[in-house]
């Protein structure tokens, strides 16, 4: 059985260090600069985990300014094999009411200003150009283990959904929201890209647990998204996601990941075109 270490990237408010036992803080720097905050090393159900607050523990980094490359690099260097990312997002579907948890299986990238690769030709960064395939974007076995663990614990989670990732920090206009619905989006957030892309570039197995906190603004009746509404629904449902993590993680450790880890590392290596 492969030894696993799970990085947990906590989205807004989903970064409560109390879920970890025997915590220690570790501050690191990377060739890409500083991660959003210290990493918190500890254990969940006997499994070694590393928690990182995506927006910083003071929530002082807006989605477009998060140093995604430093975050992923730091987790990889710390020895993580998997990342479970949590994400507060809007719902674009009547079937996904606020409070729902979704194990997403696709993304639609509408970001505009973010570094999406470690292979940028800068000195001190890895050489070559990385053409990373994006299907499947989210690791299928991780998704399956999360879904089964949730089902076993009778925690309702939805299987699959496409998350539209916008640049932010503003929310969408109603026209944009409707356009994303037409394009097939089910959820809308601001951080899954480039996180998922970078995780794949370093051969990490990556999955997202998304929590719908609002209806964005596409509905003709009902509340439109606002920061206060997001926080309120979020606080009402945060316990659900924290208990889910406590259930999933020990289950993940029962799986044999050797082949999956090897496959992702091979994909990461084979996707790089080195200079002649
Ligand atoms: N995060 C939470 N709700 C959101 C929304 N409606 N759009 C983008 N990001 C969000």
From TrEMBL:
One of its GO terms (cellular component) is cytosol. Pfam families: PNP_UDP_1. Its EC number is 2.4.2.1. It is found in: Cytoplasm; Nucleus. The keyword Nucleus applies. Residues 5-249 form the Nucleoside phosphorylase domain. Phosphate binds at residues 12, 54-55, 191. Its main location: cytoplasm. Keywords: Cytoplasm, Glycosyltransferase, Nucleus, Purine salvage, Transferase. Substrate binds at residues 190, 214-216. Pathway: Purine metabolism; purine nucleoside salvage. It is an enzyme of class 2 (transferase). GO terms for biological process: L-methionine salvage from methylthioadenosine; purine ribonucleoside salvage. Belongs to the PNP/MTAP phosphorylase family. MTAP subfamily. Homotrimer. This is Purine nucleoside phosphorylase. It comes from Rhynchophorus ferrugineus (Red palm weevil).
């Amino acid at each position: 059985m492969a030894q696993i270490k799970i990085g947990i990237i906590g989205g807004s408010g989903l970064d409560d260090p109390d879920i970890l036992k025997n915590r220690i803080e570790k501050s690191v720097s990377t060739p890409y600069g500083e991660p959003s905050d210290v990493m918190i090393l500890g254990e969940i159900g006997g499994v070694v985990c590393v928690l990182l607050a995506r927006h910083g523990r003071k929530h002082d980094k807006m989605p477009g300014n998060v140093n995604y490359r430093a975050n992923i690099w730091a987790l990889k260097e710390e020895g993580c094999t998997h990342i479970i990312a949590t994400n507060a997002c809007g719902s674009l579907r009547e079937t996904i009411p606020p409070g729902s948890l979704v194990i997403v299986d696709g993304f639609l990238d509408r970001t505009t200003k973010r570094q999406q690769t470690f292979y940028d030709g800068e000195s001190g960064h890895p050489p070559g150009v990385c053409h990373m395939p994006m299907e499947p974007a989210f690791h299928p076995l991780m998704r399956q283990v999360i879904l089964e663990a949730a089902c076993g614990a009778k925690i309702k989670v939805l299987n699959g959904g496409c998350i539209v990732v916008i640049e932010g920090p503003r929310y969408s206009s109603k026209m944009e929201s409707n356009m994303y619905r037409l394009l097939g989006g089910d959820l809308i957030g601001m951080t899954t890209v480039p996180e998922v892309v970078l995780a794949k570039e370093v051969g990490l197995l990556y999955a997202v647990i998304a929590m719908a906190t609002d209806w964005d603004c596409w509905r003709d009746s009902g509340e439109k998204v606002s920061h206060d509404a997001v926080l309120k629904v979020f606080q009402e449902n945060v316990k659900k996601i924290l208990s889910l993590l406590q259930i999933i993680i020990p289950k993940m450790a029962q799986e044999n990941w050797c082949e999956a880890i090897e496959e992702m590392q091979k994909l990461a290596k084979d996707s790089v075109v080195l200079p002649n």
